Amino acid sequence: MEKPASFSIKKWKEDDRPREKLSQKGKEILTDAELIAILIGSGNREESAVGLSKRILSAANNNLNELGKFSLKQLRTFKGVGDAKAVTIAAALELGRRRRVEEALERIKITHSKSVFELMQPVIGELPHEEFWIIYLNNSHKVIQYAQLSKGGITGTLVDIRLAMKNALEFGATAIVLVHNHPSGALSPSEADRQLTRKLKVASESLDIKVLDHLIITENTYFSFADHRIL
Prior knowledge:
Layout: H1 18-25, H2 32-40, H3 49-59, H4 64-67, H5 72-75, H6 83-107, H7 113-124, E1 131-137, E2 143-151, H8 161-171, E3 175-181, H9 191-205, E4 210-217, E5 222-224
Parallel strand pairs: 3-4
Antiparallel strand pairs: 1-2, 1-3, 4-5
Helix pairs in contact: 2-3, 6-7, 8-9
């Protein structure tokens, strides 16, 4: 039996077409698969764009955060997904991630450890390597800037304390929050984490800058030095 050329969305009933559904009923009504189908436009010879999108999502456990971790090479393994479609999916998910960061930054005032987690989890929570960041705050504990201080391997990263203090002075910060991730998912601070915290605290106090907290962030949760009274 001859196979159809493709399962084109244009041949579907109008109510079943994701683009028309979004236009007529609003974006909120569409499923994740339908939104991805709009991005990729078409499927392959065996399945529709929605069918292909469902299969891609299934490989990511139907979780957009998981899908956001897929490399272009992984996306191209799905039949019907070439360079253009892989790049489109990756770009859309990256925009979503950046939106989460910007929304958090717009409303953020550091009042507790959870507000730090909400700001930084989209930035470093899902990385396969360790990174160390500092959040610089003003007198009202509102975020002035947050910056990566170092980037390392799976098990650790080196931190330049002088650079951290230089940045704090340039930003006019009166308080800072230390943040780094543990790709392994382990939450307990290592002895190296504790020593680094003490060094940064001493250096900050000499400049009348307060270290409010140090968070270890994983994909789904965090450990706060301040909450555990070990700062």
